[in-house]
Amino acid sequence: MIQYEVTFIVDPVLSGDEIKQTAKTYEDLLKDSGCAIVNIDEEGLKQLAYPIKKRTSGIYYIIEFTTPNGIFLPKFELALKRDERILRFLTVRLDKYGVKYNADKRAGLIGKKREKAKEEVKEEVRKAKPAAPAPKKETPPPAPAPEAAKSEEE
C-alpha cells in the first residue's frame, strides 16, 4: 500500500457548512476511488504567507490516505484544480519516515501535545519535591603570593 497526504486550503469566505461540505466532497472522492482514509486533520484558519486570489487567510485541511496504486491521482488533482473553493493544494507521497512521523504526531509524541505533556510532568515534579537548599561550595585554598616565591629564589 502506498501512503499519500493531500493538504488543501479552502476559501475562508465560505460559510462553515460549505467549508465542511468541501472537505467531505474530497473525502468521499477518495473513498470512492478505493482509498483508505488514515487521518483527517482540520488545521483551521491560518494566515497565508502571501495573498492567493486576493485572500490573506485560508482554512487548512490535511487528509492522509493509503491506496494500492496511484492511478486515480491525476483525476483527483484535476478535481481540486477545477474547484473554485480550493485556493491551493499539495499532494505528497509519504516514505517510511513520513508515515512514522505522522503516526507519532497523532500519538502525541511530536508537536504541541508533547510540549504540553512535558510541562505537566515538570509541574508534577515541582509539586512532589520540596525545594532543597542549595549545597554549600567549598572554597579552594588561596594561591601563594608571587612575592613570596621571588624572595625564596633570591
Quick structural gist:
With 154 residues, this protein is of the alpha+beta class. It has helices at residues 16-32, 73-82, 96-107, 112-128, 146-153, and strands at 2-10, 36-52, 55-67, 86-93. The protein is built from five helices and four strands, in the order βαββαβααα.
Describe this structure in words.
There is one protein chain. This protein is an alpha+beta fold and 154 residues long. The chain has a domain at 2-94: 2-Layer Sandwich (Alpha-Beta Plaits), CATH 3.30.70.60. It is built from five helices and four strands. The chain has helices at residues 16-32, 73-82, 96-107, 112-128, 146-153; strands spanning 2-10, 36-52, 55-67, 86-93. It has a four-stranded antiparallel sheet with strand order 2-3-1-4, covered by helices on one side. The mean pLDDT is 85.
Topology:
Blueprint: E1 2-10, H1 16-32, E2 36-52, E3 55-67, H2 73-82, E4 86-93, H3 96-107, H4 112-128, H5 146-153
Name a few traits of the molecule.
single chain; 154 residues; alpha+beta; Alpha-Beta Plaits; 4-stranded antiparallel sheet; 31% strand; elongated
Q: Helix fraction?
A: 40-55%
- Any idea what the radius of gyration is? 29 Å
What name is given to the CATH topology of one domain? Alpha-Beta Plaits
Topology, number of strands: 4
Strand content: 25-35%
Largest sheet: 4 strands, antiparallel
Give the end-to-end Cα distance, rounded to a whole number of Å: 89 Å
